[in-house]
Design goal:
By secondary structure, the protein is α/β, with parallel strands linked by helices. It is built from 13 helices and eight strands. The structure holds 5'-deoxyadenosine.
Length: 333
Amino acid sequence: MNLSSNNIRHLLTTSDPVAIDDLFEEASRTRDEVYGRNVFMRGLIEITNHCRNNCLYCGIRRSATVHRYRLSPEQILQCCAEGHRLGFRTFVLQGGEDAWFTDEVLCRLLEDIKRRYPDCAVTLSLGERGRDSFRRLRDAGADRYLLRHETADADHYASLHPSEMSFDHRMQCLHDLRDLGFQVGAGFMVGSPGQTVDTLMKDLEFIQTFRPEMVGIGPFIPADGTPFEHERAGSVELTLRLLAIIRLLHPHVLLPATTALGTLHPTGRERAIMAGANVVMPNLSPQDTRTLYSIYNNKLSTGSEAAESAADLRLRLQAIGFDIPDTRGDYEK
Ligand code: 5AD
């Protein structure tokens, strides 16, 4: 497929259904060539919704009036035990930027998880930290780190974040993580306020040059109590096109079919897989905290989104011709 910037712009904007079907088909075939018809499963543990940041889009931003919680290390280990029993071999510890989770607390937790589950990968998704902190987490056993870049356009970044956050620091973190030997995940929301075809082209250029091992993209969904609560949600269709384009630009990338897609469309995640995605991240958090991790409205937390329904998810994926292998699902060079 022609992946010149002109053609990518065309694919992002065309209403020609044949061109889009071809795009999805070729992306799906490309994924098959690298990873086979496998979808890797990650158990998502939302460890805290405390956050020191005030991102304009996010439902757990500092100034949002949501009930705050954090899981204890014991609760997190309990989630891992349950996840391991259900067949998960990657645990993703995700949370807001919460100073309670010091390097000491996280390192001890990582060492405990790795000792109990040496066959598992641990991914962290805890926002920006200093290079020394990242190094300690890596030394304690963390394998991967997800930190979405949110947008590769500095002005757009500034319009989504308060002035104390900086695009340059975000990029610095991503480079530090890469240097320290993490498998790194970047990514962005589709349809965030102020996004244009031009900013999306910058996101795609960034992905092509940085080549993150993982790219998380999902539609923007307004969150109550945020400055963007009345903005329109991003488009499922555009998200699927972007997933497919990213697969073609970076064939080895690990590409999740995100919860946000499943939230906006009942078969959003299946459609993502048919468009080239190859990761699903069911929720392993304790039942009673799931609804509190409300980064956007109506976030799915039950049904096939829940880790307990791993068997159901497996059936749904088998129905469209995919297997969930019981491996860590590392990036394949
Ligand atoms: N809609 C969709 N995604 C969101 N995120 C945060 N807020 C929203 C929202 N309102 C995404 C951001 C962040 C990730 C954890 O969730 O991209 O990096």
